[in-house]
């Protein structure tokens, strides 16, 4: 059966294109052009999202290197004190060794002068009277006892001095190695920060504006998560308060859990009134630092890095925390995020390289990163998965 479809003439056009092959090629070209409309011609630069991720990674790597720098610096300070103590000890022992040596020399000279080395017959013949012989023997016997004690003291001082010198030499070697680690960590921080600054400097004004918009959306999401956590904590506190009231009415357990803060779970100790008082002092100090710049390795008073701020804040409350995030994470009791209380330490990332001070309602005070200032921010500022743990010090 013949087809009723009318065949096209060779000269017919479709949307100005003579052949299907040319049409396909043109449409492909249009699609490619639309995909690269935002990129400069012939430019293989990374996308804005890739730049943002790379900069974020560099800042985190720099913060990790900062904590290693802090640890090496603290270790260097302790080792330098130890070396100084050992060197002082060696100097004192050397003085005692010299004194023991001088005492031995005086005994040798006295022995020569008194003729202590002469045979007994000669000593008897040269003596004026028998009493002189007896007296001289008594003196020599006492002198021999003192000489033996002097020799023993000399040997002891010599052995101890050599031991301390070896300890000092080993400590100096270890100190030199630690100083090398300190130098390496410092160079790593500087390199990561320089790379981040270079990436940001290559962005156009439009790209920087888009990057700021991305950051704003992240902050809005973080604020939403913080508000959600605040609602959960408020509901939990209300339920626990109701349980306490019911227990009190029934006449049982009225004296338990009546302090301020959450009662916690079976595995989580309550944030009692003593902790709350200390936490209030730590938070007051932290709030007073808001607006001060983040500077890696800084512990105040004009600038801070993240662990320097938390250490200084709790020090103001009379609680001594270690210097680095790696050690601070072990300086208390771990609690669930849902039971975080003001004053708790919030740690971030799998390698525990950032920390902030929880202030309640899903918010914290922290020193964020280079180029930023101490500020209040949601604990979800880098996403929920970034939170490593919550630790209650004191």
TrEMBL record:
Annotated coiled-coil segments of the chain: 48-103
Biased composition (Low complexity): 229-239
InterPro entries: NLP_P60_dom, Papain-like_cys_pep_sf, PG_Endopeptidase_C40
GO MF annotation terms: hydrolase activity
Gly residues bias locations: 250-262
UniProt-listed Pfam families: NLPC_P60 (PF00877)
Domain NlpC/P60: 276-394
Region (Disordered): 225-274
Annotated protein name in UniProt: Glycoside hydrolase
Species whose genome carries this gene: Streptomyces pseudogriseolus (Streptomyces gancidicus)
């Amino acid at each position: 059966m013949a087809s009723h479809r009318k065949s096209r003439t060779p000269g017919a056009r479709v949307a100005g294109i003579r052949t299907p092959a040319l049409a396909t090629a043109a449409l492909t070209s249009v699609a490619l052009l639309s995909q690269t409309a935002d990129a400069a011609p012939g430019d293989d630069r990374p996308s804005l999202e890739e730049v943002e991720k790379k900069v974020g990674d560099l800042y985190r790597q720099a913060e990790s290197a900062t904590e290693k720098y802090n640890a090496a610096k603290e270790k260097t300070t302790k080792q330098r004190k130890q070396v100084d103590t050992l060197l002082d000890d060696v100097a004192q022992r050397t003085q005692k060794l010299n004194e023991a040596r001088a005492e031995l020399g005086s005994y040798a000279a006295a022995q020569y002068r008194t003729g202590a080395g002469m045979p007994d017959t000669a000593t008897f013949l040269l003596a004026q009277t028998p009493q002189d012989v007896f007296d001289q023997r008594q003196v020599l016997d006492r002198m021999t006892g003192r000489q033996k004690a002097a020799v023993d003291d000399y040997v002891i001082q010599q052995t101890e001095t050599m031991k301390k010198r070896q300890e000092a030499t080993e400590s100096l070697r270890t100190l030199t190695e630690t100083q090398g680690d300190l130098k390496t960590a410092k160079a790593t921080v500087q390199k990561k920060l320089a790379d981040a600054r270079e990436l940001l400097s290559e962005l156009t004004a439009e790209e920087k504006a888009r990057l700021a918009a991305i950051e704003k959306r992240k902050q809005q999401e973080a604020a939403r998560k913080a508000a959600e956590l605040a609602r959960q904590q408020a509901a939990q506190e209300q339920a626990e308060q109701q349980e306490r009231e019911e227990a009190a009415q029934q006449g049982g357990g009225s004296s338990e859990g009546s302090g301020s803060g959450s009662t916690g779970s079976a595995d989580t100790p309550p944030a009692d009134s003593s902790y709350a008082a200390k936490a209030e002092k730590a938070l007051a100090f932290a709030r007073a630092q808001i607006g001060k710049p983040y500077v890696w390795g800084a512990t105040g008073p004009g600038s801070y890095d993240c662990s320097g701020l938390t250490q200084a804040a709790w020090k103001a409350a009379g609680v001594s925390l270690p210097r680095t995030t790696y050690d601070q994470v072990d300086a208390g009791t771990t609690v669930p995020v849902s039971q975080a209380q003001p004053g708790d330490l919030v740690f971030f990332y799998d390698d525990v390289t950032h920390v902030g001070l929880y202030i309640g309602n899903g918010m914290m005070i922290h020193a964020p990163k280079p180029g930023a200032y101490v500020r209040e921010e949601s604990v979800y500022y880098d996403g929920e998965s970034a939170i490593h743990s919550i630790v209650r010090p004191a």
